[in-house]
Amino acid sequence: MSERTEADTVAVEVREAIAWVKFNRPEKRNSMSPKLNRQMLRVLNDLEFRDDVGVLVLTGAGTAWSAGMDLKEYFRETEAQGLKGVRHSQREAYAWWERLRWYQKVTIAMVNGWCFGGAYGPLFACDLAFCSEDAEFGLSEINWGILPGGGASKVAADLMPMRKAMYHALLGETLTGRQAEAAGLVNEALPADRLQERVTEVAKKLLMKNRETLKATKDAMRRVREMTYDSAEDYLIRAQEALNWHDKTDGRHRGMKQFLDDKSYKPGLSAYEKSK
Ligand code: ACO
User: Best mutation site among 3, 24, 27, 31 for ligand 1, i.e. most ligand atoms within 8 A of its Cβ?
Assistant: First the structure.
């Protein structure tokens, strides 16, 4: 095929408040080129504060989720431009992963196939991750002579127990979806034909909840991992107080009222009704 345009490297569809965002270079196994990295940041920017989007799902076209960085366009061609080219393309990639880590909406990685190296950046950036049982995950860097950079070592060390992470990084073998689930890289592995259904089900449950509370909660879960207990306690008080201000729907008072006065739901078992 003729070369894909920059705009065409990412596909987006919004259905019933879920934004389905796809790595869209199936012919290159969705490896991340500078074009794709630029387009992905544009797409994330466009979707982030849309009222008709509550949850974002990141998936891949074809047989791959993403085969990591594009060895030709991201490494070889940018290295040919010297340090300036290398740093520039790194910043473009890291920029959208960072945006995704702190995204306004809850994000779900729906890993439909290959997931290698640099793809661990967006995998970690998504709040939840579900994969197909026949997806394959690998830190393949060791197999072609580099260390797992771009955050990939950090992702493996943060998500996996140390022995498993070390083996994964040193051997460069792939993990199946089920093994990735056992290792902590994803929440659940499912048969391929059940994957989208399960992700949709989780997304719909999230859509029932207060959006500001979801954002405050996902940020809190990431932030407290690096804090002492005392710092976390203090941060969480301040984060809740900030949430009280940001949540113009006054969710917590409505949640309390529907439980204590109306007795219309039990917070231990489900979310309060947002429309009441
Ligand atoms: N960078 C550049 N091109 C790639 C990449 C990549 N990461 N992955 C696949 N492609 C290209 C291939 O070169 C090939 O292009 P061509 O048709 O022009 O020859 C096309 O995508 C299809 O790839 P195949 O290898 O034929 O696909 P197959 O389905 O047989 O294998 C697999 C898929 C296993 C993902 C294989 O392509 C592969 O090993 N890719 C590299 C994975 C990797 O190590 N990524 C880098 C991780 S390290 C990092 O991200 C920093």
Answer: 31
